[in-house]
Amino acid sequence: MTDAPKGPASYFPSIEAGYGRPIAEWQELIRASPLTKHMELVTWLTTEHGLGHGRANALVAATLAEG
Predict the structure, then answer these.
(1) Which residues, 6 or more positions from 51, have their beta carbon under 8 angstroms from its beta carbon?
(2) pLDDT digits 0-9 by tens, 24-63
(3) According to the model, what pLDDT value does residue 2 have?
(4) How far from 30 is each of 6, 12, 25, 40, 61, CA to CA, in Å?
(5) Are 15 and 58 in contact (CB under 8 A)?
(6) How far is Cα 58 from Cα 9, in angstroms, rounded to an integer?
């Protein structure tokens, strides 16, 4: 039995399948953005890249948690 990802990472398989980009690419976009606040980044991903709110939130949370 494998342990399923938990927290924000649990969204990653559906993000990759639904939007056709690897998570590393999304995280690079987030890191390269001049925006720094969590909700600013979530809004940017939803409006500019068409991600759903939950998926954008998961990407931003995981990326910002890495430091």
Answers:
(1) 15, 19, 45, 59
(2) 999 999 999 999 999 999 999 999 999 999 999 999 999 9
(3) 63
(4) 21, 15, 9, 11, 11
(5) yes
(6) 7
CA distance 12 to 16: 6
pTM for the whole thing? Answer: 0.88
**Closest of 21, 2, 33, 3 to residue 55, by C-alpha:** 21
Q: Can you tell me the distance from the alpha carbon of 8 to that of 6, in angstroms, rounded to the nearest whole number?
A: 7
What is the 8-class DSSP label of residue 66?
A: T
Domain residue extents for the chain? 10-65
In b/e form, how buried is each residue of 17-30, taking b as 16+ CB within 10 angstroms? eeeeeebeebbebb
